Fold this sequence. Notes:
By secondary structure, the chain is α+β, with helices and mostly antiparallel strands. Helices cover 19% and strands 34% of the residues. The protein contains 10 helices and 36 strands. The strands form 9 sheets. Strands 3-4-5-2-1-8-9 form a 7-stranded mixed beta sheet, sandwiched between helices. It is globular and about 70 Å long.
Amino acid sequence: MRTAAALLTILLCSLTPGAAAAAPRASHVQIVAHPDDDMLFMSPDVALALRSGARVATVFLTAGESDVRPPADYAASRQSGTRAAFAAMAGTADDWTRSALALPGGRQAELQRLRQRPEVALVFLGLPDDNDPDSRHALSELWRDPAHRVPTIPASGSVVSATGHDRASVIGSLRRIVDEFAPTLVRTQDPRPDPRYQGQWGAAHDHPDHVATARFTETALRGTDLPLLHYRDYNVADAPANLPDRVVAAKRAVFARYAEHDPQVSLGAPYDAWLASMRLRRPWGTRWATADRHAHVRGNRLVLTESGVESAVDAPFVPREGSVSFADPSRLVVQERDSGAVWLQDGDRPWLPLGTPPPRRPGADLGPPSAVSVGDRVVVAVRDQGGGVSVRDSGGWCRLGGTDVLDEVSAVLAGDGEVHVMAASRTGMRHWRLTPSGCGEPVASTEHPVGGIATTSGYAAFRDSRGDLVVLAEHAGWQRTRTIDAEAISDPAIAPGPVLAVRNADGLLEIVRPDGSRIALGPVEGRPALTPDGDQAAALAGDGLITTFDVP
Length: 552
């Protein structure tokens, strides 16, 4: 068995030297509820950002003291664990400076900087944990009630004194911290956990502090153009594990450094399930790039880049991040931020509302749409609020079925003119063929994707639990024709050939050519997209901008 030190070496050496030089302006801020949330739910992204040379800061809203007594001592232990883990990820000695960060209204947070890499920072606000018996549900109450006020809990040895916060001061403090670190990209937690999962948490379906933190973060960033990535938390355990073994081992080794200081955690259940996955709450699909055009949501705006020129697109709704899908170069569909309702823009025509499919389930989100043009029609497919798949053709919405479908679905026009819809579920791949006289009929499959299925003319692709890429071909009856050893940490994109694009274990955009050869093009964040002809790839980069790569 490998030692923790050996596994840390894997982590620290996981990026190529070129990755660190590619994005010197990148500044990443994570805003989470508890010490360890970023290590469990946002890694390997945080580890990759640290190794890339980006400026990295995590903001912890609560002291994380739970019901452990004395609370200040346990909060200090969790801070010590966080420092040890971040020093390990950064590859430096566990040696930090500590100072007070001034916040609005005379308040302070504790700011800790890694001495050998002062661009790596930790910020502790010290609000009470949801489970603190002296201040139950503090963060949730702050979110719900503007008049509510709670005291902070400085950790033992802190350089700041106790103060008090209300809803407005938490939002103001987050805005001040964002100004301090000038991020190019912000990560936070899940503001609307899927109600199919984590029922033991009641109406929150997750730790209430996670949900409140995400909502505070969203509010604090309103009016900015910062990319905001939401990460799923406890409910990653309700989906198939999706990280390669090497990445899980390195992530586990870092968490072991944290666990040395926190007697309340372990490397066994349920932590092992959280360590084996990383999932965005609102994942980007692969249809947001087309020939000479790509579109994405940044802040509260739909941004279109055409021949290298960026412009904001007027829309009668606030768009949701990650929800753009081109049906063809002149037609795109986008979701509304709050309701998830789907809108269609067809050339220069006014936006057309397509609505939301039944069933209606309060608190549940629609998955991101996938759209395909069939002559003068646009067929749209989504994961609906019931956890199944619904499609909209010219006749309105129709439910294909399913109850445990993951966030993304994909529609593809087959060579015979039929539309196929594919999705991953917890029990395996779901596949339907749409029929002219009815809604659709199931197509049998024995595959088990762990995330989104990418489709293109004649092909489909996904990753399996090892991070390998699986290719299905229409000419083989949509059966497996290739398995590619890839160690992918994102779901793939695909273009005819097939050409595949994926984010690999080193955080680099990797292209797999039809002959099986591959090339790494540069560091990216999240899942890439390919243009329909496969000659360009696009992805969000660490500087918060979309980077386009020519595919050799």
